[in-house]
Amino acid sequence: MDVDVRNPDKRRKFAAWLSIGVFGGLATGLVTITLPFIIPAFRKIVLPYVPATVEQIENVLKAVNYRRPFEQQQQQQNSPVIACAQQGFRSYGVELNPWLVIYSKYCAYRQNVHKLATFQRKNLFKVNLADYDKIIIFGVPSMMPLIEQKIRDDCDLRQRSTTLIACRFPLPNWHPYMTFGTGIDQVWLYKYYPSHYSSHMVHNKNMMMKK
Description:
Elements: H1 8-38, H2 54-64, H3 80-86, E1 91-95, H4 98-110, E2 117-121, E3 134-138, H5 144-155, E4 162-167, E5 178-180, E6 187-192, H6 195-210
Parallel strand pairs: 1-2, 3-4
Antiparallel strand pairs: 4-6, 5-6
Keywords: Membrane, Methyltransferase, S-adenosyl-L-methionine, Transferase, Transmembrane, Transmembrane helix
InterPro entries: FAM173A/B (IPR026170), SAM-dependent_MTases_sf (IPR029063)
Protein name: Methyltransferase-like protein
């Protein structure tokens, strides 16, 4: 665009249009970045983004490795997926916010665990939880009863138990197998046994008693 610098009116018009373009571009960029963080407030279940604390991640690792001590990493993580990958677990994270997915992938690559840590933009309630042995949930009170039902629906046909680790809030109707930490950093460990699995175990026990 050519502007006659000798004409003050044209210079002012050009500056005005340039300002509109710059500020319009900035506003569009800000909306694009911030909108995924605002949208959760309008969903049926309000689940705001709250980073996990270092203590919370340590409690999660204790729950994941409750039968053996976990290896302490020099660099502390606020992502349970990356933290578990550093312990050698193949880990999968689901998140609706695309920017958090991109950032998590970057952090996994930076920590050199990108081959073990995978992140997807997905709704948790559309994931088949039966594919996973250990499930870590960061939820809100209104979400936890739905998690209970989701576990029952997805995992009741499994041939083995499912470990569920709840952070920040416990499941309202299940009794925890173990707990780690206190306050906002507390973590609850649950064991879910499919109904047919429990019946099979009782049947085997009776058979052994008959013998």
